Each structure stands twice: as C-alpha cells, then as structure tokens.
Amino acid sequence: MMALAIEMTLPEDVLPEHKSALAYLIERAAAGDNTAFEQIMIHSQQRVMAMSWRMLGNEADARDASQEVFLRIYKYLKRYDPNQDFFAWVYRITVNVCRDALKKRRRHDNRIVPFESDADGGSLEIAAAQDDVEQTFLSTQRRELIAQAIGTLPYKERASIVLRDVEGFSTEAVAEILQSSATTVRSQISSARKKIKDYCRHAITSGRRK
Amino acid sequence: MNCTQIEELLPLYAGHDLAKSREQLVTTHLQSCPACSFAAAGYRDVRELMQDFVPPGFGDEVYAEIRKNVWQRIEKGSRPRSFFESMAVWFQPRLAWAAPAALLIIVSLAGLYFIITEFNVRPAILVSIPKWEVGPPRDMRDSVPLPAGEAPPKQRQADMPKRQQKPDRMVAPDRGNSLVATGAQPSRLPIRASETLPLQSPESPIIGTDNVDFGAGGTEKTLRMEIQTKDPNIRIIWFAPREPKPMTVHSKGT
Lengths: 210, 254
Hints:
The structure holds two protein chains of two kinds.
Chain A: H1 21-30, H2 34-56, H3 59-76, H4 86-105, H5 135-151, H6 155-166, H7 171-177, H8 182-209
Helix pairs in contact in A: 1-2, 2-3, 2-4, 3-4, 5-8, 6-8, 7-8
Chain B: H1 3-14, H2 20-32, H3 34-50, H4 60-78, H5 83-89, H6 93-120, E1 133-134, H7 138-142, E2 179-181, H8 193-196, E3 222-228, E4 235-241
Parallel strand pairs in B: 1-2
Antiparallel strand pairs in B: 2-3, 3-4
Helix pairs in contact in B: 1-3, 2-3
C-alpha cells in the first residue's frame, strides 16, 4: 500500500492539450491512483507545511496539520472542481484544519499563540542601535518579531494577512479561500496591518529604551 | 479628506488594496502631509517585514515522514475496524457528548408523548359518573303509553341532543347516561347507554337499589352497575350484592 515517492514523468502524448500535468495527476488520483496522489503531495507539501507553520507557530503542530490536510485531500479529491484553482482549494483545507487545531488547542482564546523561537531566549527586542554587520542575526530577529506580532492576531485576521501579504493571493482569492466576502477580508487585513505595526513599534521602542 | 480619514485608509493603501480613486486621493494627501507620509512608511515597513515571515527550512525527511504517516493512516482507515476500535469510537469526545444528548432528547420526547396521551384520556369511570339513574329514564316514565297502531311522535330536531342531529359523526357516548343501574337483563350488554333504557319495559320490576331480583332462583338481591368508559366498545358491568351476607358462626372457620 505504501506508495513510492518517485517523480513521475508525465508522457507528453498522453496529456490532452487543455490539461496541465497537475490536472492530469488530480484526475488520476481521484480515480484511485496512489502514485498520482503521492505526486500531488510532493507538489504541495511545502505550501501546506509552510502555511500550517504560519498559522500554528510550531513544527510539531504543523506536521500534524499537514498530515490531516493530505488526508482530507485524499478523502475529498473526488469533490474537487477542476475549474477551481487547485492550490486555493488546498489552502482552504489547510486553513480549516489549522482552525480546528487552534480550537482544539485553545478553546477559550485563540488570540495569543506563541510562535516557537529560533534563537535562544526568543527576545523580541530589536537591536536598533547595532550596525547592519550581523545581517543574519538581525534577519532572525526580524522574523521572530513578525512571528510574535502575527501570533497575537485573531485567527481570521492571521489567516487573511498571511494569505494576502505572505502567500501573495489577491483579496478576492483570499475571500474565496476563507469563504468570506472581499469587504470583510479587507477589513481584517487592515486591522491586522495596524496591529502588527503597533506591535513592532512598541517592541522596537522598548528595545531602544533597554 | 483630513488626516484622520487618511490614516484609516493607510493600512490598505500600503498593500494597494484600495480602489483607484481612493488610492489617488491618499497619494495626493501624502504629498502634502509629512505626518501621514511617515505613517504610510511604517505600513510599508510592515509589508516588507512580512516577507521575512518564512518558516524554518524543513528537511526532506520531514516531508517523507509526513507522507509516510499519511499513507499509514489511509491504509488504517481503509481496513475494517476491529471490535475494540469500534467500541473506542463511542468514547471519543464528540460522541461522548452526542450519545447523552440523543438519549436526553429521546427521553424528553417519550415523556412529552406520555403527558399528552395521559391528559387526552379523561378519567371516564370515576369522574364521569354524574348520577345514578334508577329505573327507566325520566322521559320514559312520564310518557303515556300510546294507543295500538299509533306511531310515536317524531322528536323535533331542535329537541334532540346536538350530537344526535348529526348521526354520521363519530361521537363519544353520553357520559351522563353511562352509569345505569338495571336489573332486567343482566346478560345483555347494550352497545350504547341510550339503548339500555328501552329494554326496561314498564312491566319489568321497578329497579331500585332495594328491590333487585337476580339470580337463577330469583332470591338474591343484586345491584348491577354499567359504567361506560371513553371507548364506546368497552363497558364495565359490576354486579354487587345489595347487602353483604351476615357472617355466621360457621363462616368464621373456627
């Protein structure tokens, strides 16, 4: 039953002109071809894992969520509409799985989900006085800072801002993924940007004081 | 637009999420307002900072393990569940709540049905005994025997009880007449209470609680009571001795 993780080269003559390789894989996987589904997982695993990590904040939860995402894709692949963007559909499943995970983790309040820190201590203080010599260190701190800022956002705002500003979806696409309206998504994005700006300004200011 | 209104639009302006007309208005305002320009620069920095929000690099072994676990779970889900696995499902958190909730709903519905049914059945035997009617009905006793060959006068429709005006309608028997003491034909079970009355001919002994002659020998005084229940097909007939037999010395068993 274990499918092999082999890169499957698609014969060009097999594919109809109007179908991409991904659509062909999806069609095959929906028909029960496990090798095709393995290829779909390989093609989408980085997006799913990255999105899960951005939503949940740590690798362990992101792994569990990714597994659940692929299980749901396997289960509901027959319901997938080929006219829809496949990765938007995958992102929708990912967001829903992460929402469920957040609910399970914090039933009372999902606002503050601490992101795991790459550096020891996880200090949020930006070394504003330092020169740009230690670019790597500074980059790590910037990543921690934005991670902590996003971690303070409510779930919907977090999903909106990540999909819009990090994943690069349009507002309408984000609305479709979140099954919401574009107006609502704009409002969530606006609120999220303002909160992140305030959080970062506060962190930088307190860092300078110290 | 003043600075307050512009400030509300700046988060969306930074991401080019505004309509073209509004974006143009904000751009024009920022050219002449240093404070708003400074705030807009802050939002642009946030946008740039968001690009640093990248997850740590996950190795291939991480992805391989995820795929492996996915296939294991798919394989596990495709095979039939064992008995213990099926039982374990009932103790999952959701079902643990769902089962008592379903049980509560079922009990509530059953209780509601019982209450409705109970209130619909009126206590016909005990409550609906308004009176004892001894002997023929009053209208029968008061009437004069008709001459031979003359038909009895037709009862006016207005004088008839309301339910008798519509014979095709299913009605419950008259509970006012449902309890009759009679002694003429103990073996006959009249279908309706009203039918019991004509059976008591004027020649039959006047039925009274003191003078009831029943039994094969005609020596035993018995009281017969007919009780019409709500169901017209069920009638309770009760025979009781008028007076209890006096206890004798031999009946004590001593």
